[in-house]
Q: What sequence folds into this?
């Protein structure tokens, strides 16, 4: 009476799992080979740098997230802008810890 549908044996399920894992590895390998090795520029324009330096001079200290919210850009782009401002000498790095960079305006 009843009993439901019979399930696959463990050996068959194990073979299918190994086959699927092998396919995933191959796809990841292909995707890795297709990736370009060059870094994509973030599109730092002179206008964006000017706006960032203006925001920097108006505040005591700036973080990537505060700069991103005031400029309306992504945090990664704000981080790149801050690095560029420090490199050009418009800002002084106060502290750096992992993703957090603290800068103050050059006086």
A:
């Amino acid at each position: 009476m009843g009993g439901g549908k019979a399930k696959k044996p463990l050996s068959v399920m194990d073979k299918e799992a190994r086959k699927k894992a092998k396919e995933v590895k191959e796809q990841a390998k292909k995707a890795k080979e297709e990736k370009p090795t060059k870094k994509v520029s973030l599109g730092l324009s002179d206008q964006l740098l000017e706006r960032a330096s203006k925001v920097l001079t108006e505040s005591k200290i700036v973080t990537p997230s505060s700069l991103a919210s005031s400029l309306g850009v992504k945090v990664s782009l704000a981080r790149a802008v801050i690095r560029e401002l420090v490199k050009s000498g418009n800002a002084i790095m106060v502290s750096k810890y992992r993703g957090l960079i603290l800068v103050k305006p050059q006086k």
User: Anything to note?
Assistant: The first helix runs from residue 10 to 34. Residues 46-105 form a domain with the Arc Repressor Mutant, subunit A fold (CATH 1.10.10.10).
